[in-house]
């Protein structure tokens, strides 16, 4: 691209308006192919698991039939490796015909017919990370129009094989191009990862204006080490990252790997709890056709989901790192409630942690706490009352904390997906539980 084109593009950027189309007032929820299925394109030897329309139809069926959709898990997102190696005669991206014989438009209809939404992947650069056709600056409008014409609802825009100048031009241009299609399309930007994830290289105000969510840090892998590294990076940099987040603009620590091979049950609860506290997208990458009951229950935990989807949309923070390697995370929620996660980074045995709400900056008063993963309720919690929790190694205790109620029943949040992003309070039959 010559210098004149760059000048013209820079002029366009200054006119960029917010992609404020009302989408993703709460973090997106759904399923994405990458972490679990990668770039498996071997449909002859691995027909069930290769990147093909069969895989996405299977996952749409599971989301629609196994209770996921009602909980808010609605996006089915294609990642890299869906494309043909060549654009078509008009220069448009096209799916690999042997693996997507019906085309993306037909797949979108299948997904929409089940009350779900379709996401797709493209790459700002000469090639996608796996070497398929990229979206160079001159192709941005065409590709946005192609996606809209297929009925795509979400775009993950990666950034392999481009330089920082092209990224600076391309991400706002794609935002504008998606807006110009007239179709509301959620826009996930991988841009920050490619420039280190932090200011001043990353302008989070700008990202908040042009993208609905963004990947700040490296890809998650199927291991507790990878997950811990991500949580640590986000927490160490929370002063920069936490204020960037809010309704319609989310930090994305990457996919939920619960149900795969790398996490114990305690570690799976830890991911669910920490992603809820961080107001992170709840986008699973697992095999919904083969999911253990315990992992399913963790991913379908209604209170954890309601905390994640809280309408205030305030990302939580790490409050404390104890010498004992217990960490405390906190997130303010609507209706004067809050969530606490007590994470053990120990590797020995369940640890007895002594604290009080006052030590965690709570105002004087009386509280109750609902234990998100055991379903028990802790009553009569004066801010100054000391309590003791038993936290498993690499596990969590997660509390939903709210001001004491007159009634004997817990006031639990309930995220009602079909009514939009709103909470209703319903009475649950919480059992009485004595504070340890
Ligand atoms: C396009 O942007 C305008 C201004 O932010 C917004 O009102 C409109 O809803 C957007 N439309 C789409 C389809 O994104
Ligand atoms: C960051 O982006 C915002 C919004 O577009 C802009 O007003 C601001 O000047 C930018 N900051 C820097 C340091 O470039
Ligand atoms: C809570 O603790 C404070 C300070 O110890 C005390 O003044 C207050 O009466 C307590 N409230 C209840 C309801 O126990």
UniProtKB/TrEMBL annotation:
Location of the Alpha galactosidase A C-terminal domain: 313-395
User: Which SUPFAM superfamilies does the entry mention?
Assistant: (Trans)glycosidases, Glycosyl hydrolase domain
Any one GO biological process = oligosaccharide metabolic process
Q: What are the alphabetically sorted keywords of the record?
A: Disulfide bond, Glycoprotein, Glycosidase, Hydrolase, Lipid metabolism, Lysosome, Signal
Residue ranges annotated as coiled coil are none
Superkingdom per UniProt = Eukaryota
Per its UniProt record, what Gene3D superfamilies does this chain match? Aldolase class I, Golgi alpha-mannosidase II
Provide GO CC annotations from the record: lysosome; membrane
Compartment(s): Lysosome
- Can you tell me which family this protein belongs to? Belongs to the glycosyl hydrolase 27 family.
Q: Which PANTHER family match?
A: ALPHA-GALACTOSIDASE, ALPHA-GALACTOSIDASE/ALPHA-N-ACETYLGALACTOSAMINIDASE
Name under which the protein is recorded: Alpha-galactosidase
Q: What is the lineage of its organism?
A: Eukaryota, Metazoa, Chordata, Craniata, Vertebrata
């Amino acid at each position: 691209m010559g210098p004149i084109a760059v000048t013209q593009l820079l002029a366009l950027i200054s006119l960029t308006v917010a992609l404020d189309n009302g989408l993703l007032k709460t973090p997106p929820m759904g399923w994405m192919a990458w972490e679990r299925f990668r770039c498996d394109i071997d449909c002859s030897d691995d027909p069930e698991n290769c990147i093909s329309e069969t895989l996405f139809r299977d996952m749409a069926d599971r989301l629609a039939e196994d209770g996921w959709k009602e909980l808010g898990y609605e996006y089915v997102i294609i990642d890299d490796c869906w494309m043909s190696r060549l654009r078509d005669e008009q220069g448009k991206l096209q799916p690999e015909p042997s693996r997507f014989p019906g085309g993306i438009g037909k797949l979108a209809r299948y997904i929409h017919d089940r009350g779900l939404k379709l996401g797709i992947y493209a790459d700002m650069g000469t090639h996608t990370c796996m070497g398929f056709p990229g979206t160079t600056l001159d192709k941005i409008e065409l590709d946005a129009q192609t996606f809209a014409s297929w009925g795509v609802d979400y775009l993950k825009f990666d950034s392999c094989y481009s330089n920082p100048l092209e990224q600076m031009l391309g991400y706002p241009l794609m935002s504008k191009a998606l807006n110009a299609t007239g179709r509301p399309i959620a826009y996930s930007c991988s841009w920050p990862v490619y420039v280190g994830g932090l200011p001043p290289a990353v302008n989070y105000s700008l990202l908040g204006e042009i993208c609905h969510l963004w990947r700040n840090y490296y890809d998650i892998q199927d291991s507790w080490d990878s997950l811990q590294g991500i949580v640590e990076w986000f927490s160490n940099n929370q002063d920069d990252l936490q204020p960037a987040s809010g309704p319609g603009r989310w930090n994305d620590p990457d996919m939920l790997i619960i149900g795969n091979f790398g996490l114990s049950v305690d570690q799976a609860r830890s991911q669910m709890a920490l992603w809820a506290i961080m107001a992170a997208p709840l986008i699973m990458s697992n095999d919904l056709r083969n999911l253990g009951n315990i992992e399913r229950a963790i991913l379908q935990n209604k209170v954890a989901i309601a905390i994640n989807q809280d309408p205030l949309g305030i990302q939580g923070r790490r409050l404390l790192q104890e010498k004992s390697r217990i960490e405390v995370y906190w997130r303010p929620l609507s209706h004067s409630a809050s969530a606490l996660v007590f994470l053990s980074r120990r590797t020995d045995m369940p640890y007895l942690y002594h604290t009080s709400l006052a030590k965690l900056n709570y105002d004087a008063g009386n509280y109750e706490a609902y234990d998100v993963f055991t379903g028990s309720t802790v009553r009569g919690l004066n801010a100054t009352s000391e309590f003791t929790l038993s936290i498993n190694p690499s596990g969590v205790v997660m509390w939903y904390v709210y001001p004491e109620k007159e009634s004997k029943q817990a006031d639990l949040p309930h995220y009602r997906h079909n009514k939009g992003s709103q909470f209703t309070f319903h009475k649950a039959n919480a059992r009485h539980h004595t504070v340890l």
